[in-house]
Design a protein that fits this description.
alpha+beta, four-stranded mixed sheet, two-stranded antiparallel sheet, 4 helices, Glyas_Bleomycin-R_OHBP_Dase
Length: 153
C-alpha cells in the first residue's frame, strides 16, 4: 500500500510538551534561532506561560533498544541519548548545527552521513533536550526503493 493509499490517521497532531526552567532562553533558541514559527502563546496566573511552535510534520519514531544503540553508535560513536530524543529535519545540517551551537547548544557529534542516507548531527539544547538535526539525502520515493527501507517485517 503506498502512502497515498493509506487511510488517514485519527490523530490530527503530535504535540511534544517540554518543561523549560529557563523559558525565555528556550523560546529564543527554538523559535528565533532554529526558526520554528510561533502558532500560539498563552499566559496565566503566577507567571504561567506556554508557546506553541510549529515544527512542521510530526512523526513518532519507535525504536527497540538494539536500534537505539545502533543509531547512537552511527551518529555519535557511543551511547549518549536518553530515552527521549527530539529530531528536526532541516535543509542543511552543517549550517543549522553551526547556528545552534553559536546560540548556546552543545555539539555532541558533528554532522555525519548515516547508512540510512541522511546527514545527522547531535546536540544538547535548551530545555534539557537531546536533539538530532537531520537532512535527508534522498526523497521518500527513492528511499522506499532501497534495501532496508520498508514497513514490512
Amino acid at each position: 500500500m503506498s502512502s497515498s493509499e493509506q487511510p488517514a490517521s485519527p490523530v490530527r497532531q503530535l504535540r511534544l510538551v517540554v518543561e523549560a526552567d529557563d523559558y525565555e532562553a528556550a523560546v529564543r533558541f527554538y523559535r528565533d534561532v532554529l526558526g520554528l514559527p510561533e502558532q500560539a502563546a498563552y499566559s496565566g496566573d503566577d507567571d504561567a506561560r506556554v508557546v506553541i511552535l510549529d515544527a512542521g510534520r510530526a512523526t513518532l519514531e519507535i525504536a527497540n533498544p538494539a536500534q537505539k544503540r545502533m543509531i547512537d553508535e552511527v551518529e555519535v560513536g557511543q551511547q549518549v541519548a536518553p530515552r527521549l530524543r527530539v529530531a528536526f529535519e532541516v535543509d542543511d545540517t552543517a549550517a543549522t548545527t553551526d547556528r545552534l551551537v553559536a546560540a548556546g547548544a552543545t555539539q555532541v557529534a558533528p554532522p555525519t552521513t548515516t547508512p540510512w542516507h541522511s546527514v545527522n548531527a547531535r546536540l544538547d539544547a535548551p530545555a534539557n533536550l537531546h536533539i538530532t538535526l537531520f537532512q535527508e539525502l534522498h526523497t521518500p520515493e527513492t528511499r522506499a526503493t532501497l534495501d532496508g527501507f520498508t514497513t514490512n517485517p
